[in-house]
Amino acid sequence: xxxxxxxxxxxxxxxxxxxQVLVIENQLLFTKLVSELVFQIEGVGETFxxxxxxxxxxxxxxxxxxxxxxHLSGTQKRxxxxxxxxxxxxxxxxxQFETVRIFEDLCSYYQKLSENIEFSITYKVSNDVSPLxxxxxxxxxxxGETLAEKxxxxxxxxxxxxxxxxxxxxxxxxxxxxxxxxxxxxxxxGKKLRLLLVENTYQAGxxxxxxxxxxxxxxxxxxxxxx
Length: 227
Prior knowledge:
Elements: E1 2-4, E2 12-13, E3 19-24, H1 27-41, E4 49-52, E5 55-57, H2 59-62, E6 63-66, H3 77-92, H4 96-114, H5 130-136, H6 147-162, E7 166-170, H7 178-190, E8 194-199, E9 210-215, E10 221-224
Parallel strand pairs: 3-8, 3-9, 6-7, 7-8
Antiparallel strand pairs: 1-2, 1-4, 4-5, 9-10
Helix pairs in contact: 3-6, 6-7
């Protein structure tokens, strides 16, 4: 997977066996590129070009940008929609007989209710399982205890449930230790998650897991090589 932008001389290579790090020391450029990335995923602008096997792919359907690491939630709208669709499919296929039985029991329940009042009533039980699932308030919970564990849980859910293939993490290194970051790298690589870290300062220590491109204050590109 390659990510291109007019300010980059060469595209970034985002793979599942190395973490791509983009360091932008110029504060104005850092803000500009991060905002463009966020807005493009929201459907505004097209300065970034994401491609797979040299064929352009839609950025907003393949990438998730994570800036706020303290409000990660399994109830995010995209996740909740996919979860509801998955449960609806399970209820109508793999658990079809159990679903039918629930509706039959519901009809029986309504009948017993009607027998306890003096008025004549009618009722209708739809075969739509959506209200039934909504009643359960089904949600995914993040089980991790540390920030790194919760982040990994969140990315795994987005990948498996929503088909997100790449995660752009903004200034992540400011919020977790090197030990946590190394564990996150190892787990993400093991799960074949593609990571792009966008940082505004360079921090050494995990070069064996990273491919790093640094844009200095003069807009010069420097590649950090592993010795």
